[in-house]
C-alpha cells in the first residue's frame, strides 16, 4: 500500500488491467493476475480505498470470460483510470470442444476493434453516459493486423461518429492534438488536458467525417 500512497502524493493514478494474464498451460488454472472481476474489484477497493487506485479497463477480457463488459463501466466509473480498446472473437465451435476451463487462446482470439464480438455502440454509449474523459488506447494484439487494419478504420470511425459524436473523438484525439499544437503545450504540462478543446469542438464533426472518408479500405 506504500506505493499507492506514494502515487497519490505525487498525483499519479494506478490502474490494474482486468486481464487474467492466462496465456499458456503453465499459468493454469487462473492466470497471474487477480484483478479480473467485479467481486474482486470491490474487495480491492475496500482494502485500498484510495481513489487514485483503480482499473485499466479492457472489455475484451470480460468478453472471453463470458461476462458483461458494459455494466462495470457504470458500477466502477470513478475507478476507471484508463481504457484499452481491444476486441475479441469467441470461436463457439472451439469452446464447445475444449470447454471454458481450457487455456483461453484455445477458443478466442484478440482482434482490432470492430472485428470481434464487442458491441462498440453499447460500449461508447456507456462511456458517454458516465462522462469518461480519461485516456483511451487502441491496443493492437490482432495477429492479422496488416489485413485487419484495412477493414477496421471505417466502421470504427463511423460508429464513433454516430454513437459517440464529439465526446468520443475528444477522448481519442485530445492528447495527440495538444502535443501537435505546441502553443498549448504549457497548459498540457500543467495538467489541463482540455486546454485545446474549445478550439476544435465546433468543427470536430467535420474533421471526423473527413477522417472517415480518408480511412483505408473505403
Please describe what this structure looks like:
The chain is an alpha/beta fold and 218 residues long. Helices cover 47% and strands 12% of the residues. Strand 1, helix 2 (38-47) and strand 2 form a beta-alpha-beta unit. Mean pLDDT is 78; it is low at 169-203.
Distance between the termini: 50 Å
Percentage of residues assigned to helices: 40-55%
Rg = 19 Å
Q: Briefly note the structural class of the backbone.
A: alpha/beta
- Estimate what percentage of residues fall within beta strands: 5-15%
Q: Major sheet, described briefly? A: 4 strands, parallel
Uncertain runs: 169-203
Mean of residue pLDDT values: 78
* Global geometry: globular
Arrangement of strands in the largest sheet? 1-2-3-6
Number of strands: 6
The sequence of SSEs as H and E is: HEHEHHEEHEHEHHHH
Short description:
With 218 residues, the chain is an alpha/beta fold.
Spell out the key features of this protein.
alpha/beta; 4-stranded parallel sheet; 10 helices; globular
Amino acid at each position: 500500500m506504500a506505493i499507492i500512497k506514494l502515487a497519490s502524493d505525487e498525483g499519479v493514478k494506478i490502474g490494474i488491467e482486468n486481464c487474467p494474464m492466462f496465456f499458456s498451460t503453465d499459468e493454469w488454472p487462473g492466470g497471474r493476475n487477480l484483478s479480473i472481476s467485479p467481486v474482486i474489484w470491490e474487495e480491492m477497493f475496500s482494502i485500498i480505498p484510495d481513489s487514485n487506485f483503480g482499473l485499466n479497463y479492457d472489455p475484451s477480457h470480460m468478453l472471453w470470460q463470458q461476462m458483461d463488459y458494459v455494466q462495470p463501466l457504470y458500477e466502477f466509473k470513478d475507478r476507471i483510470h484508463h481504457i484499452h480498446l481491444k476486441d475479441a472473437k469467441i470461436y463457439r465451435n472451439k469452446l464447445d470442444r475444449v470447454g471454458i476451463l481450457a487455456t483461453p487462446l484455445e477458443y478466442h482470439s484478440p482482434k482490432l476493434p470492430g472485428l470481434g464480438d464487442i458491441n462498440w455502440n453499447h460500449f461508447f454509449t456507456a462511456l458517454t453516459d458516465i462522462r469518461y474523459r480519461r485516456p483511451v488506447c487502441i491496443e493492437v494484439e490482432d495477429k492479422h493486423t496488416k489485413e485487419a487494419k484495412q477493414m477496421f478504420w471505417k466502421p470504427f470511425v463511423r460508429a464513433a461518429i454516430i454513437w459517440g459524436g464529439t465526446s468520443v473523438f475528444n477522448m481519442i484525439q485530445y492528447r495527440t492534438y495538444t502535443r501537435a499544437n505546441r502553443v498549448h503545450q504549457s497548459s498540457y504540462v500543467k495538467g489541463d488536458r482540455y486546454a485545446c478543446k474549445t478550439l476544435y469542438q465546433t468543427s470536430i464533426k467535420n474533421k471526423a467525417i473527413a477522417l472517415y472518408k480518408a480511412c483505408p479500405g473505403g
